[in-house]
Specification:
heterodimer; A: UDP-N-acetylmuramoyl-L-alanine:D-glutamate ligase; Protein-Tyrosine Phosphatase, Chain A; six-stranded mixed beta sheet; 16 helices; globular; B: Rossmann fold; 12 strands; cell shape (chain B); carbon-nitrogen ligase activity on lipid II (chain B); EC 3.5.1.2 (chain B); ligase (chain B); Class_I_gatase-like (chain B)
Chain lengths: 468, 260
């Protein structure tokens, strides 16, 4: 490929800024990527040219970051080095930044393999410049419709932009994803036989009620969650493809999610059955990359959940769990997980409506909060925070949570304190923020955890001191 | 006392949390001892407009909307007659557009609507997305003048509508109908004349999602009241504690007006 002077300027400027940021102790791959993009708009094409072992992308609505991180953990276990946009920087600028960081001054890449999480709306632009060797498509749900327009459009754009040369790793249980396989030769499907939560009927708000191929209503013989399950179309015969990688004997036990693929056993410390799909997607891709099952199992097991995905903190009042919420299906899964703990509950929900959260918060009414309403006797209180705290409280009122259990507290530190005030030992506490609240909240909790840790140590020394 | 609320095509028209509108209508009935009966009617199922009190038509994606206009066309006469007899209807976004004369596509092709309301929609080039505050038209929430409950907006505690719009179609109102309000923030019907929504007899059409009804309890209650009056009940609705509804409404209105 012929490289223009623009490419060299963009590369070197980008690399200088990256180093500058590192020296000044700042993180971030977005700024160098942004500037390099400005100088050479086609820079991704050049930066991606020398990955001889391939470029793997992960896209879809939910589970991109988790899937990419699981696969990264497996690749590390297999001793592979690779370029990776780790921080979830999955737009053009973030991807460019990650590639820049992995490119030497002479323009060649430092590794032969790249693993990139790509935002679904960015896929068309990305694939305009880069042809991935593997593309994992996780699922499609309603997410930030105001940013992407309607779901149909997003799915269509992603489908159209993927090259026939790319091997598609597809979720067989999601009809919106499985339809990518229609007319494609290079596909590999993964799916789930059943989970303890699978059921014959679904009352959730779901996508894809109609056949993506012909428009006739889809019939289901089993639902896993959302529109994921065993579906078939009575019109054109479109149906759930037989998965090449099928999870069986799915059991959640001792904070582990265990499952089998054929004779091989796997487990992950992630909670919630939706994470089973993320593990399966990573497993399927790893097999395609020629990694053996033993290493895959180790990699899945070694993975520790990242920021705000059912992340636990130990505070003075007890353990709290932090998890990101961003769309109805994800939120329904979180509610399911919370209720399955079978303990009295304290909950804080933080809803912001900035661009990264989605400006339109009407999705809150598609979340099945009625399930919390039906179990309101188990709920101590729900603290509503964030820019749209009032809307959240209103939603919960209509879901059947008594008003005297609802608290509106805009200040995050105050909300965290309220969550813990007077907490009894048997009560479980959850914090459920949208994206732009997540990191502030996480820092706050990490700080409190550190203080709590110090208090524990102080207590111990005092007691020991008293003994002598 | 019982009110029958029909959610038409809930499986097709349920974008943007529109389900919340049904939840609001049902809850505000229950809290007053009125029994709400929710009918969910899907494509091809039988539909009896005379048996219902409130008809809700939500928004859907373009493809799904196309499927159901065809289905509704078969029932157009019955619906028209019910509306002329005072049926309470709330149409949002796609549900609003399809009550009009036609939807003109980008290529100029006109997809006929039900033609019950004197309005039409033309496909726009950019999507109109964002929060909306609309000042209620003086008579937008008025109750039929023949009733002794005639009143205007000055009696209402809230005089605005607040919600979120997301549409590319631009809707224009004909002479026979009046707007629901005037936009203070946002684009409204067509981004040109400042109008938002429509009112014709007991039919309300609007582009506001949010969902609309939970945070606009004054509008929700007018729908219920109109439906009760139509059934011959004469009493005003009992007051509810609308602290959270009003708070959510006013917080957003104040924030948006300040930003504008």
């Amino acid at each position: 490929m012929k490289r223009t002077w623009r490419f060299w300027v963009a590369l070197w400027v980008g690399k200088f800024i990256t180093i500058g940021l590192q020296i000044s102790g700042k993180k971030g791959t977005t700024l160098p990527g942004k500037i390099a993009q400005k100088i050479a708009p086609e820079i991704m094409k050049h930066l991606s040219a020398s990955y001889t072992e391939g470029i793997v992308i992960v896209t879809g609505t939910n589970g991109k970051t988790t899937t990419a991180n699981l696969l990264a953990s497996i690749l590390r276990e297999a001793g592979k080095s690779f370029a990776f946009n780790q921080a979830g920087a999955n737009l053009v600028t973030g991807i460019t930044g990650a590639l820049l960081q992995n490119t030497q001054w002479n323009g060649s890449s430092s590794t032969k393999l790249a693993l990139l999480e790509v935002d679904e709306a960015t896929v068309p632009k990305f694939c305009g410049q880069v042809t991935p060797s593997l593309a994992i498509v996780t699922n499609f749900f309603r997410d930030q419709l105001d940013r992407y327009g309607e779901l149909d459009t997003t799915v269509h754009l992603v489908k159209e932009s993927l090259s026939p040369e790319t091997l598609l790793i597809l979720n067989a249980d999601d009809p919106l994803v499985a339809q990518f396989g229609l007319g494609s030769v290079r596909t590999c499907f993964y799916g789930v036989e059943s989970t303890p939560d699978s059921c014959l009927e679904s009352h959730e708000t779901r996508e894809a009620k109609f056949c993506p191929a012909c428009g006739i209503e889809l019939k289901y013989s089993l639902f896993h969650y959302g529109q994921l399950g065993f579906y078939h179309c009575q019109g054109c015969g479109f149906h759930r493809p037989e998965p090449h990688v099928l999870a069986q004997n799915v059991v959640a036990a001792d904070d582990l999610l265990n499952f089998q693929v054929g004779a091989a056993a796997f487990s992950t410390s992630l909670q919630g059955y939706y994470n089973l799909y993320n593990a399966l997607a990573a497993l399927t891709a790893a097999r395609q990359l020629g990694i053996e099952d033993g290493l895959i199992a180790k990699g899945l097991r070694a993975f520790i959940p990242q920021a705000g995905r059912m992340e636990r903190f130990r505070l003075t009042g007890g353990e709290v769990t932090l998890t990101l919420v961003k769309n109805p299906t994800g939120f329904n899964q979180v509610i399911q997980t919370i209720l399955s703990a079978d303990k009295p509950l304290r909950i804080m929900i933080g809803i912001n409506d900035l661009a990264a959260d989605g400006r339109d918060i009407s999705w809150l009414w598609d979340v099945d909060f009625e399930r919390l309403g039906m179990r309101e006797e188990r709920i101590q209180h729900i603290i509503c925070s964030g820019l749209r705290a009032e809307d959240m409280a209103l939603r919960l009122k209509y879901a059947g949570i008594p008003e005297d259990k609802l608290v509106i507290e805009h200040s995050l530190p105050a909300a965290v304190n309220l969550l813990q005030q007077g907490r009894r030992g048997d009560e479980a506490a959850f914090l459920l923020p949208t994206y732009t609240l997540l990191f502030t909240l996480r820092e706050l909790l990490a700080e409190q955890q550190q203080k709590a840790g110090l208090t524990v140590i102080e207590d111990r020394t005092r007691k020991e001191g008293a003994g002598t | 006392m019982k009110l029958t609320i029909c959610h038409l095509y809930p499986d097709l028209l349920d974008l943007y949390g529109d389900r919340g509108n049904i939840l609001a209508l049902a809850a505000r009935c229950r809290w007053r001892g009125i029994e709400p009966e929710i009918q969910e009617v899907s494509l091809g199922e039988s539909l009896d407009f005379t048996g219902m009190d409130i008809l809700f038509l939500g928004g859907g994606s373009d493809r799904e909307q196309g499927i159901l206009v065809q289905d509704l066309m078969r029932r157009e006469k019955d619906l028209r007659q019910a509306i002329e007899n005072g049926l309470v209807v709330l149409g949002i976004c796609g549900g609003y557009q399809m009550l009009g004369n036609y939807y003109q596509m980008a290529g100029g092709e006109k997809i006929p609507g039900l033609g019950i309301l004197d309005l039409w929609t033309i496909a726009g080039t950019k999507r109109l997305i964002g929060n909306v505050v609309a000042e209620l038209h003086p008579t937008a929430l008025k109750i039929d003048s023949e009733s002794n409950l005639a009143r205007d907006n000055s009696e209402l505690k809230l005089r605005t509508l607040v919600g979120f719009e997301n549409h590319s179609g631009k809707t224009y109102l004909g002479k026979g109908v009046s707007p629901l309000g005037k936009v203070s923030v946002g684009h409204g019907n067509n981004d040109q004349d400042g109008t938002e929504g429509v009112r014709y007899r007991n039919v309300f059409g609007t582009y506001l999602h949010g969902p609309l009804l939970p945070k606009n309890p004054h509008l929700t209650d007018i729908l219920l009241e109109l439906a009760l009056i139509r059934r011959g009940f004469d009493s005003c609705l009992t007051e509810l504690d609308d602290y959270l509804e009003t708070l959510a409404h006013k917080t957003m209105v104040n924030k948006l007006l300040k930003q504008a």
